[in-house]
Design a protein that fits this description.
Layout lengths: L5 H13 L23 E3 L14 H5 L5 E7 L11 E9 L8 H5 L5 E3 L14 E3 H4 L20 H9 L17
The structure holds iron/sulfur cluster (2 copies).
């Protein structure tokens, strides 16, 4: 009944759309802010003295469903220290040709070394450039930080780093306070 109205209804959709505000964003000149917990590229965080939080344990690599992370650990020595404790991540790479930005690696990290930023502009025309290295992923040095290698400044042992409120649940561990990191 009243089937002859169907074409008119169809045009109704067209006219409605013609007068609806266009949602097009003039990217890249205009960038819409992401959600605060958006999963963008990763960041390797530092302690307040500049030492690296990554201990080279490879848990992130094992948790990754896309096999996108490659880690090689090395031993710290008193003269050549990059992180509190025994080991640090000497080589750290994330392959953004494989990464699906799921965040499982962040969940697996025991030291909150690895978080994700809201940066999403990861496209490139070079395979090599899409494999990000440790140097690219490391958080920039903030005021009061010192480029490793250097001795532990926040305590005598690695336990001091975690126990003094600067650990995973302390001020340095909160994702919103890891520079640029959101997760
Ligand atoms: S975000 Fe997901 S896919 Fe990407 S490196 Fe982490 S675990 Fe792997
Ligand atoms: S980022 Fe975290 S999980 Fe990955 S190797 Fe470093 S400490 Fe381990």
């Amino acid at each position: 009944m009243l089937e002859w109205l169907n074409p008119v209804k169809g045009f109704g959709v067209t006219f409605h759309t013609m007068f609806t505000k266009v949602p097009t964003i003039e990217y890249p000149e205009v960038k819409r802010p992401t959600a605060p917990r958006f999963h963008g590229r990763h960041q390797l965080n530092r302690w307040a003295d500049g030492l690296e939080k990554c201990i080279g344990c490879e848990l992130c690599a094992w948790a990754c469903p896309a096999d996108a992370i490659y880690v090689e650990a090395a031993d710290n020595t008193e003269d050549d220290r990059y992180s509190p404790g025994e080991r640090y991540g000497r080589v750290y790479q994330i392959n953004y040709l494989r990464c699906i930005l799921c965040g499982l690696c962040v969940e697996a990290c025991p030291t909150r070394a690895l978080t994700m930023t809201t940066e999403y502009e990861l496209a490139d025309d070079s395979r090599e450039r899409l494999i990000w290295t440790k140097e690219q992923l490391l958080a920039p040095l903030q005021e009061g930080m010192e480029e490793p290698p250097h001795p532990m400044r926040l305590g005598e042992t690695e336990q001091d780093y975690y126990a003094t409120g600067r650990g995973r649940h302390g001020t340095q561990g909160r994702p919103e306070e890891d520079s640029e990191a959101v997760r």
